[in-house]
From TrEMBL:
GO molecular function: transferase activity
Stored InterPro entries: Polysacch_pyruvyl_Trfase
Location of the Polysaccharide pyruvyl transferase domain: 50-328
Pfam families for the chain: PS_pyruv_trans
Protein name as annotated: Polysaccharide pyruvyl transferase family protein
Keywords assigned: Transferase
Length: 392
């Protein structure tokens, strides 16, 4: 008999429409949100904190068996706090898939996760778990995260990690079923991912309309990228994920009292961030709360040059060739495991001519090898899910 699968953790974009839950039932609004005022826009961004995270929940649910049931984590947490309701979850499900990201990090104590998963009396699959920086964890693992790992040691568990470094850390903690599979977002729309990889060597830098992503307001790297790579006769395009929340990027309403156009995803208010004066042409800045809208827009572009992992993955899901810039250990781990094309931030920063550096790197790529490596990782991911009994 196939296991009854409960899915929770990081959600897909569809969770934005959830307006209530009672027991096993979750209700969804039929009215699409249009967060166009400043307060509405920023609140919508806070609800997910990083729009790239929507790809994690979306990719996970698509990879799992179709009878898997998504229950919002906030509902499980509320049931835990209220002291009721967990009997029905434990009696109606056989296994829980918890979708996560860089859960193992110095600044995050997984208290809520420990609270909820500690009350689920079933095997737990930690899908997409990763670490931020192992050096930070060796002597400073947060108490809530220590409690979560202790809970998982008491029952059957499965850790499907983002890469080899997280796998090594968890094995050192004494866990047995730990396998690197990569982030589930990487295996959503795999045919388009392969198409994107095949196109990479033929991208013409200086002529390709390019999507940029990074940390505007935190640094000016994306500005340097756009000045070097964007065609002279076009406007550079930048996609936001969390910059308005975490960095010095601000927006104020236009004359209509709006900061955001829901139809296009374009920021139409007065957007400000350090370094604006250095841009040859100001960015068109966009934010997407719906991954389908994000992919549809991305598909009209020629190339993606991204300092954000998920901002680049969604472009590849739309068959847009993408080259990532590895900016930290977390990103290096994911790229190192998947083999997706990337350059290191330190290398591009040292390049005398950024456009020539990127063009030369693309020309030297072997598209067939990239596709074969990706296909191997995809097979591995789906094989592990089937071995556990939760895959399609």
């Amino acid at each position: 008999m196939r296991p009854r699968i409960l899915v929770t953790g990081i959600p897909g974009h569809y969770a934005r429409l959830a307006n209530g839950a009672n027991g096993l039932a979750v209700s969804y609004s039929e009215r699409q949100k249009q967060p166009e005022t400043k307060d509405e826009f920023l609140q919508e961004l806070r609800n997910i904190s990083n729009t790239g995270n929507y790809l994690i929940g979306e990719g996970a649910l698509r990879a799992l068996a179709p009878h898997a049931k998504q229950v919002p984590f906030w509902h499980l947490y509320n049931c835990s706090q209220n002291g009721d309701g967990f009997e029905q979850f434990n009696s109606n499900f056989d296994i829980c898939v918890f979708t996560c990201a860089n859960l193992l990090r110095k600044g995050l104590s997984a208290d809520a996760e420990a609270e909820v998963l500690g009350k689920l009396k079933m095997p737990i699959v930690m899908l997409g778990i990763g670490q931020q920086n192992r050096k930070d964890l060796e002597n400073a693992l947060p108490e809530g995260t220590k409690r979560l790992l202790s809970i998982l040691k008491e029952r059957e568990h499965y850790f499907l990690t983002r890469g080899f470094e997280t796998t090594g850390f968890l094995k050192d903690q004494g866990f047995s079923f730990v396998q690197p599979t990569g982030c589930p977002s990487v295996y959503f729309m795999p045919d388009n991912m392969r198409r994107a990889l095949k196109k990479l060597p033929s991208v013409q830098i200086g002529k390709a309309r390019t999507i940029f992503s990074g940390y505007l307001g935190g640094n000016q790297d994306a500005i340097l990228d756009a000045n070097a790579l964007e065609p002279q006769d076009s406007v550079p395009q930048y996609v936001v994920q969390d910059e308005f929340l975490l960095f010095d990027m601000r927006v104020e309403p236009n004359a209509e009292g709006r900061v955001y156009d829901s139809a296009s995803g374009k920021m139409i208010g007065d957007v400000a961030y350090p370094g604006t004066e250095r841009l040859k042409r100001p960015f068109d800045v966009r934010t997407f709360f719906d991954t389908n809208q994000w992919r549809a827009w991305a598909s009209s572009m020629d190339f993606n040059f991204g300092r954000r992992f998920h901002g680049s993955i969604i472009a590849m899901q739309a068959a847009v060739p993408s080259l990532m810039v590895a900016v930290d250990d977390r990103m290096r781990e994911m790229l190192g495991f998947t083999g997706l094309p990337a350059v290191d931030a330190t290398d591009i920063d040292k390049a005398e001519n950024r456009a020539e550096f990127v063009a030369d790197h693309l020309a030297g790529l072997n598209a067939s090898e990239l596709v074969d490596r990706y296909s191997d990782r995809e097979r591995n991911f789906r094989t592990v899910l089937r071995e556990i009994g939760i895959g399609q």
